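[step 3/7] inverse_fold.run input=structure_tokens len=711
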């Protein structure tokens, strides 16, 4: 980063110079002066950064950096006056500038040596005199009124005060007390920001310059705090003032509402930036007690809440490109608070998991609020939407904390927070003007059972030996209620409505997906609670079998309810085979499942889908007489390549080669023929998969010994 900071200005200067002037224009004395000045200035600014650790790691002494700083600073000071002349800068003080540059450069050098206090005091007086000379030559006779009714003479006075304060602060930083130094830093910050704001409001001060000065001043204050020259709170307050000024300037440039911000909003923004800098920047190296850290984080979140109106409304309007609602501002508030809590935990409490989870809860809550847009009103719809958000928050809290551990408590919690997702699903799947009350009740009941299953899976370590029994009962109840919902849909459906378009199928699919996914997660994380071997009483566990049944059922329903047709439907079915990774070793149907081959069902099922789809999409079923032969040849090629997949299944599932190697070798060219005689994209995809599988088998699994070398 330091190297880029050093080389970027000179690189841009050369690039722009070559582009604007050409190569011959670059080889010019004035351009060379500009390049050397920029390089020296960049090196000087880089040496002011905290690079001691980097320099020492490289193997150099830090004294070299100090010498380079002095050399580059001196050269930049010497070249500054020619640069002003080259750029055509005019000023009433321009004739005094060379002498002033020399005085300031020598004064800055003398401040590095505390023993030369008298000499530095002399140059301090000279610098103050030069400031007075500059002030005398200002056009005091001009009249102009700025914001707040401030006259031009008042602005001149503030600028003079800022100049003198800067010199006094520089002198006291080496030869004064910390109390006086701190007081004058605060005064200089107030005066400087006031001058900047007034000049910027009158379009006499550019916004990029305001940004640069804010960043430079903040970095300087941070370095003073690191060097223990400023207290933490004081440095934080001054930095917050500069950052707040920069943020307001940016808002004025890029938004229209910023100029109408009341002073209370500016104060709340300052308070937010103050807390963020204090907690996330200046207090990082300090060991803070948890109680104090909790207070600071709470104040930081309160400051975010105080900035909801109008700052977060403005932010929401520019993020979502529409007028932000109260829900948008509330959601952004939750997200920012959650991210701040997570950042605080990472910096101060890296091992504190619960605090990070609390921050994640805040982020998730914010996203939910933005998505659901709850109407905060005393209407039926508003109360229901707020209940949805509260239910989801409670679900997350229950799943990621130990607040609920016993199964009866899980059932009670499921009844309280599980009904709203089911009602929302019913309102979404059924027409708004015709939602059967029976199905509404059934959807809510299934939702409560699924939430109960989720809670039980997340609390499996607390439920002990009764875990499997309770989960099986919940799963049976889910299946029963889903079948009842399907029966009600079949009875009440319209004649023209397709059977597979009934909403209950989607409910059944969602239930199977949740159960099979949760079962797989619990088995992979806490397998001791769902034993994959026979128990002491020779009773085989049934929960892995239930997980496998729901996994296979989920795959079939995903294929049946596919949203696309043609090749996209085949791709959907192949992608749906990913759910088969939830299969488990259940001691009844699947015995050979291991960590090494758990992806085999997914791979072979995708191949089977391609084979069946290629046969079904062949022209054989609707071809005319002259394409019948080609269609038969296509079907023959598809079926002829199936031994390749049989060998592939044996290698992936059983780690054995089930057919002789020449079978795969001599069937490989059939895939090329499929590319020529195939009549669908699916057939061509199958040919590519078959060729890739054959090449993989020959290159990694077969020895391929020449026939002449075989014994």
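[step 3/7] decode complete -> sequence:
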């Amino acid at each position: 980063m330091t190297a880029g900071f050093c080389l970027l200005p000179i690189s841009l200067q050369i690039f722009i110079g070559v582009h604007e002037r050409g190569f011959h224009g670059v080889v010019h004395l004035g351009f060379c002066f500009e390049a050397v000045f920029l390089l020296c200035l960049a090196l000087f600014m880089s040496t002011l950064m905290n690079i001691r650790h980097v320099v020492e790691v490289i193997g150099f002494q830090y004294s070299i950096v100090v010498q380079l700083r002095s050399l580059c600073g001196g050269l930049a000071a010497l070249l500054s006056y020619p640069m002003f002349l080259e750029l055509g800068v005019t000023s009433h003080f321009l004739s005094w500038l060379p002498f002033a540059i020399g005085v300031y450069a020598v004064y800055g050098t003398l401040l590095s040596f505390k023993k030369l206090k008298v000499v530095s005091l002399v140059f301090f007086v000279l610098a103050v005199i030069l400031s007075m000379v500059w002030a005398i030559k200002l056009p005091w006779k001009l009249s102009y009124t700025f914001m707040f009714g401030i006259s031009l003479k008042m602005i001149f006075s503030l600028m003079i005060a800022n100049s003198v304060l800067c010199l006094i602060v520089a002198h006291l930083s080496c030869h004064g007390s910390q109390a006086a130094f701190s007081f004058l830093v605060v005064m200089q910050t107030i005066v400087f920001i006031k001058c900047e704001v007034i000049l910027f409001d009158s379009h006499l001060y550019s916004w990029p310059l305001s940004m640069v000065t804010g960043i430079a001043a903040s970095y300087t204050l941070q370095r003073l705090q690191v060097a223990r020259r400023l207290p933490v709170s004081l440095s934080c307050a001054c930095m917050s003032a500069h950052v707040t000024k920069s943020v307001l300037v940016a808002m004025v440039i890029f938004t229209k509402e910023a100029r109408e911000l009341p002073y209370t909003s500016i104060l709340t923004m300052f308070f937010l930036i103050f807390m963020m800098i204090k907690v996330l920047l200046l207090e990082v190296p300090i060991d803070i007690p948890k109680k104090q850290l909790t207070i600071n984080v709470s104040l930081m979140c309160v400051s975010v809440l105080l900035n909801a109106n109008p700052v977060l409304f403005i932010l929401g309007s520019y993020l979502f490109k529409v007028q932000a609602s109260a829900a948008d501002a509330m959601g952004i508030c939750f997200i920012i608070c959650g991210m701040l809590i997570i950042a605080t935990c990472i910096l101060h409490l890296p091992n504190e998991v619960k605090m990070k989870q609390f921050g994640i809860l805040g982020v998730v809550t914010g996203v939910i609020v933005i998505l659901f847009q709850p109407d905060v009103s005393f209407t039926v719809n508003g109360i229901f939407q707020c209940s949805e958000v509260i239910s989801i928050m409670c679900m997350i809290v229950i799943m990621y904390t130990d607040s609920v551990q016993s199964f009866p408590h899980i059932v009670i919690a499921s009844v309280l927070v599980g009904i709203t997702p089911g009602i929302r699903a019913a309102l979404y799947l059924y027409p708004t003007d015709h939602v059967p009350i029976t199905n509404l009740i059934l959807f809510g009941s299934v939702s409560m059972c699924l939430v109960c299953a989720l809670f039980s899976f997340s609390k499996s370590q607390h439920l002990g030996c009764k875990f499997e029994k309770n989960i099986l009962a919940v799963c049976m109840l889910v299946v029963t209620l889903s079948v009842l919902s399907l029966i009600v849909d079949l009875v009440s459906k319209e004649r023209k409505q397709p059977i597979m378009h009934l909403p209950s199928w989607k409910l059944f699919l969602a239930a199977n997906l949740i159960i099979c996914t949760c079962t797989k997660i619990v088995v992979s994380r806490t397998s001791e609670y769902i034993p994959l071997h026979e128990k002491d009483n020779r009773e085989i566990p049934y929960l892995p079998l239930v997980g496998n049944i729901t996994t296979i059922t989920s795959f079939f329903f995903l294929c049946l309810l596919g949203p696309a047709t043609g090749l996209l439907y085949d791709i959907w079915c192949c992608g749906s085979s990913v759910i088969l990774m939830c299969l488990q070793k259940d001691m009844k149907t699947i015995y050979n499942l291991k960590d090494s081959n758990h992806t085999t069902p997914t791979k072979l099922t995708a191949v089977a889908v391609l084979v069946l789809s290629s046969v079904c999409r062949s022209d054989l079923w609707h071809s005319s007489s002259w394409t019948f032969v080609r269609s038969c040849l296509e079907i023959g090629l598809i079926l002829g390549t199936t031994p390749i997949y049989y060998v592939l299944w044996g290698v992936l599932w059983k780690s054995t080669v089930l057919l002789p190697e020449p079978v795969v070798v001599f069937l490989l060219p059939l895939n090329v023929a499929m590319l020529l005689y195939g009549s669908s994209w699916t057939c061509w995809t199958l040919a590519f998969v078959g060729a890739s599988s054959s090449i993989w088998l020959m290159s990694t699994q077969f020895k391929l010994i020449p026939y002449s070398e075989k014994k």
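[step 4/7] annotate
The first helix runs from residue 2 to 26.
The two ends are 65 Å apart (CA to CA).
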